[in-house]
Amino acid sequence: MNSLCENEGADESRRSATRGGMLVVVSSPSGGGKGTLIRRALEIVPNLDYSVSYTTRLPRPGELNGRDYYFVAKEEFERMRAGGEFLESACVHNNFYGTACAEVERATASGQDVILEIDVQGAASVAERAREAASVFIFILPPSFDELARRLSARGTENQSDLQARLKNSRGEVERYTEFDYVVLNDEAERASKELAAIVLAERARRERQIELAKRVLATFPQNF
Q1: May I ask the CATH architecture of the domain 19-51+111-217?
Q2: For residue 193, which of 52, 20, 26, 56 has the smallest C-alpha distance?
Q3: Domain ranges for the chain
Q4: pTM for the full model?
Q5: For residue 115, which phi and psi values (nearest 5 degrees)?
Q6: CA-based torsion, 25, 29, 30, 32: positive or negative
Q7: Is residue 46 within a helix (H) or strand (E), and if so which, with residue range?
Q8: Which phi and psi (to 5°) does residue 92 adopt?
Q9: How far is CA 36 from CA 41, 196, 198, in A?
Q10: Using one digit for the tens of pLDDT, what is the confidence trace for 48-83?
Q11: Distance between CA atoms of residues 184 and 192, nearest Å
């Protein structure tokens, strides 16, 4: 296929639609629970790959390099970004995050659907480059501000200053739900993860994504019966 992941500094003419697998972009404010829902959806939906992002932040308790993120030094991240290795990258709460081109293309080139877990800023960057491609954008909505604050506090991974910054930014992030194709309310993880999985399965069944399948079936029918 033509490369979706051209250098982020490349001109618009070099951007192209992905052929093969579908990009499923899942986003939410920090603490919205997108990671939990994605992990559960991956258990439900067959043949769905997960794109592991790169970050310069330190691992949180229980996180593993190569499973949750690729944890790299800022210098390595900058080298990759300068070399055009990211589909999208952003600075979020003083840490850098990026989706590697190779992670996406490895799956989509072989027809595999791939799910991306990224912040709202990163989702907007992907949308600029992939709206014409086989992609779907899903926003995970927290049930309330108070619940979002409770979840962020409960995970105990931020100091008070970082926690307040995330909460301060959360309203602006939630207001951008209008930029997404679907909105899933994460009020209960099991129900919400099933809804997320249902969206992916429904998107796979879209007519425009089943043209080759329909042609193969039609080829088995006689033309003059």
Answers
A1: 3-Layer(aba) Sandwich (3.40)
A2: 26
A3: 19-51+111-217
A4: 0.85
A5: -105, 135
A6: negative
A7: none
A8: -125, 120
A9: 9, 11, 16
A10: 999 999 999 999 888 999 999 999 999 999 999 999
A11: 6
